[in-house]
Amino acid sequence: MIKICMIGTGYVGLVSGACLADFGHHVTCVDIDGERIDRLEQGEIPIYEPGLKEKVADNVSSERLYFTKDLAAAVRDADVVFIAVGTPSADDGSTDLSYVFAAARDVAKHLTNYTVVVQKSTAPVGTARKVHAIINEAKAKDAEFDVVSNPEFLREGSAVPDFLEPDRVIIGVQNSRAADRMREVYRPLYERETPICATSIESAEMIKYASNGFLAVKISFINEIAHICELVGANIDEVAKGMGFDPRIGNKFLHAGIGYGGSCLPKDVSSLMHVASTHGYDAPLVSAADAINQGLVDRALEKLYRATGDVKGKTIGILGLAFKPNTDDLREAPALRIVHELLKGGARVKVFDPVAMDNFKKTVKAPVEYGRNVYEMASEYDALILVTEWNQFRELDFTRLKNAMKGNIFIDCRNVYTPERLAAKGFTYDSFGRGKP
Ligand code: NAD
């Protein structure tokens, strides 16, 4: 059993903390957001993540998982301290490392015995070394420590199983003492023969950016092909399926639509471009992926404008706000810009999302109306846009919608339905990459 201190209780910190407790370790989670810790202590989960509530409750009641505002005690007690705080984009596209460095300074003050400090937040190459330098300068003389880079690959919406059964674990270390301790942390995964890839600290940091950069390129590639499909009259679903049989290509991440959002891909792509540019290289491939992705909201809006003529005075229903299903995370969600542009264009906007509406009310504060379900306000809709492919939007009752709706426009930003099916139901339908609009 290892004693772990987890700094940060967001999507990564809370899931990692709960799952590491599930591995049998003693985990204490800390956050500078005191209200968050109060809620966690009362058994409330501040984010929506399937399976997380149960995982937290199980491990709290088994006395392996604790929450505290007392960072000093948690660090003093720990064999391993994880830093899992946010690393958002700064205005120039670089990574804001202030939270990581603040956490490192806090850790330094309270280190006692040999401790491994794990840099889990996604941060550019060189960050773990800076964390090392910060701690080294501020720590007590006799406190020993190592810094390890252990990037996280979990996906919101399936974060718990992703952490418990990862495709691989990347550990960037500089000596065997730290590597041995990390092996103890991930022992259940070693025993299950999960690939554990030990690398240099710099390579570990780069693996995270290279992986997310590659995924962004793959998504933007299929979206570029979808655009060409529209121009020439091919169908992207058939094209992607045909491509995906080739094992060199694979069938994952070949789904055309409104592109990627969320707290990771957009910011990690920006960071990669920024890092390259500071070294005099413009990283044309990831830059193109980013530009293509940014253009996709405009393409969705063009489709809506083409169908409606103009949105001024029209009532538009938005199905889905979260950047993807099974999360309440709105960071870089395409729905945000869609709502903004529609309001700017004089539309009346009604939104519905199964879990992200509270977050939207708190953080976006846009003058929209909130629905309780898809059908409630149907009589007022001129058009519907499906932005997030929640399961409950995958089998809509189109007969009911068509009978109730004022208009008959349906823009499908996730290619959930087929043009034939919606045409048969009397809808003016548009999606991405299915022949000429
Ligand atoms: P988040 O914003 O959900 O959570 C960060 C938490 O850290 C917040 O609760 C915040 O209050 C806390 N915090 C900030 N500074 C602190 C400090 N000095 N001491 C204690 N707590 C502090 O962020 P997240 O989505 O969990 O992401 C964390 C990191 O993991 C980022 O670098 C991100 O890029 C990376 N990551 C995220 C995902 C994901 O799907 N969200 C996946 C892989 C990697």
Question: How would you characterize this protein structure?
Answer:
This protein is an alpha/beta fold. The protein has two domains: about 5-200, NAD(P)-binding Rossmann-like Domain (Rossmann fold, 3-Layer(aba) Sandwich); about 295-430, NAD(P)-binding Rossmann-like Domain (Rossmann fold, 3-Layer(aba) Sandwich). Helices cover about 45% and strands about 15% of the residues. The protein has 17 helices and 14 strands. It has helices at about 10-20, 35-40, 50-60, 70-75, 100-110, 125-140, 160-165, 175-185, 185-190, 200-230, 235-245, 265-280, 285-310, 335-345, 355-365, 400-405, 420-425; strands at about 5, 25-30, 65-70, 80-85, 115-120, 145-150, 170, 195-200, 315-320, 350, 370, 385, 410, 430. The protein has a six-stranded parallel beta sheet with strand order 3-2-1-4-5-6, sandwiched between helices. Strand 10 (about 350), helix 15 (about 355-365) and strand 11 form a beta-alpha-beta unit. Helix 4 packs across helix 5 (about 100-110), helix 5 runs parallel beside helix 6 (about 125-140) and helix 10 (about 200-230) crosses helix 12. The longest helix is centred in the middle third of the chain and has 32 residues, at about 200-230. The N and C termini lie far apart (about 60 Å). The model has no long low-confidence stretch (mean pLDDT about 95). Nicotinamide-adenine-dinucleotide binds near residues 10 and 106.
